[in-house]
Write a structure and sequence with these properties.
By secondary structure, this protein is α+β, with helices and mostly antiparallel strands. Among the domains are: 45-177, 2-Layer Sandwich (Alpha-Beta Plaits); 229-345, Beta-Lactamase, CATH 3.30.450. Helix content is 43%, strand content 25%. The strands form three sheets. The chain has a five-stranded antiparallel beta sheet. A four-stranded antiparallel beta sheet has the order 2-3-1-4, with helices on both faces. A three-stranded antiparallel beta sheet has the order 5-6-7, with helices on one face. It starts with a helix and ends with a helix.
Length: 391
């Protein structure tokens, strides 16, 4: 059995030569690789499609499909045609021979467009198109799971669940009338049979004379949006619950108009106004008149985000004045610049603090009074003792 290590040591020069050759070959291959994330390659298939809204299968086959096929047979380098006909819709796949060079393909497709354009006037009135597509995007494969080879030769209905097939004629009718279809949300189906939520954008394509010859179609996969929207709805429900069930009064007001936009149940109970009454009020309506200038000044200089806690006086529906600690945070509420406010009633605490202050003040006065009496007595004793010494 040959020992490769021993052989390599004995034939060192040849081994070095092989290493150099392999290294250069590797470098050459590396630098010859395409640098694009999605390297370009040539499709030798074109899709020719025409719609005849309202037509029967037999009429579509005889008056549209067969006429187009006869003309497409003249295509240079043609390998084979494959057509699919449904009521009101013709789809024909034009496949070129594999020997057709990439440089020839654009010229062939130009000729196909020209040839079909020459017979367009012979097609029945009301036919939309024919339109042409020789560009298969990567996104198609990412969304539907088909490779280009697998997609070629399949009717467009392959991408639509059976219970949504009736939507196609409606869309084609709009295109035939020159209307654009924006964000049409429907269902799609992948190669594996999974349902997709898709959003379609379709726009009529016209030739130089203004006649509609097809439609530009863009498909967006919005399947992932559904769970996100559901999560958003759940989040909104949770925050709404936190807002409504909070035991402290809370509300949202418009920073520009100062109008109440939303109030929770605690605010209704604590302030005495109904929700309908709050809806017709501004935050000025719960402030004592002397405090309104300070509030306006505060609104003029307040900053975005979470604001520091401040103590304010508020007025209830019965006219009573309460002291509240207000915590506010700016937010966007239904497209309006707003603030979320939480109000903590500290009236009782303020009263307790005031009673304590008054009590301390009385004690302080009493203490100072007793100290003054003591000092006066001390001076009297000192004076009396001095007089006794002088006798």
């Amino acid at each position: 059995m040959t020992n490769l290590s021993e052989w390599a040591l004995k034939h060192r020069a040849f081994t070095v030569f092989l290493m150099i050759v392999f290294t250069l070959a590797g470098l050459s291959s590396y630098f010859g690789l395409g640098r694009n994330e999605d390297p370009a390659f040539t499709f030798r298939t074109m899709v020719v499609q025409a719609a005849w809204p309202g037509a029967t299968l037999d009429d579509t086959l005889k008056q549209v499909t067969e006429r187009l096929e006869r003309k497409l047979q003249e295509t240079r380098g043609l390998d084979f045609l494959r057509s699919y006909t449904t009521p009101g819709l013709t789809t024909i796949f034009v496949n070129l021979k594999g020997s057709t060079s990439a440089s020839e393909v654009p010229d062939v497709w130009y000729q196909v467009r020209k040839n079909i354009g020459d017979i367009r006037h012979t097609l029945p009135a009301g036919v939309v198109g024919p339109g042409f597509n020789d560009d298969f995007g990567d996104t198609f494969g990412l969304i539907y799971g088909f490779t280009a080879d697998e997609a070629i030769g399949k009717p467009m209905a392959t991408l639509v669940p059976g219970n949504h097939a009736n939507e196609i004629p409606t869309i084609l009718t709009k295109i035939a009338h020159g209307e654009r279809v924006d964000h049409y949300e429907t269902k799609g189906i992948t190669k594996a049979g999974h349902l997709l939520e898709v959003s379609l954008f379709l726009s009529p394509v016209r030739d130089s004379s203004g006649a509609i010859i097809g439609a530009f179609t863009s498909v967006s996969d919005i399947t992932a949006h559904e769970p996100a929207e559901e999560t958003l709805r759940e989040s909104e429900t949770q925050y709404r619950l936190l807002f409504e069930s909070n035991p402290l009064p809370m509300w949202v007001f418009d920073r520009k108009s100062l109008a109440f936009l939303a109030v929770n149940e605690a605010a209704v109970r604590h302030y005495g106004f109904s929700r309908n009454e709050f809806a017709d009020m501004t935050i000025l309506d719960i402030r004592p008149d002397p405090d309104i200038p300070r509030l306006r000044e505060h609104m003029a200089r307040s900053t975005r985000g979470l604001q520091k806690v401040e103590v304010w006086r508020h007025r209830k529906k019965d006219g009573s004045i309460i002291y509240v600690e207000v915590t506010a945070h700016s937010l966007d509420f239904q497209g309006r610049e707003a603030e979320l406010v939480l109000a903590h009633d500290i009236t009782e605490r303020k009263r307790d603090e005031e009673r304590l202050r008054q009590s301390e003040e009385r004690f302080s006065k009493a203490f100072r009074s007793r100290k003054s009496i003591s000092l006066s007595r001390k001076r009297m004793v000192t004076v009396s003792y001095g007089r006794m010494l002088s006798l």
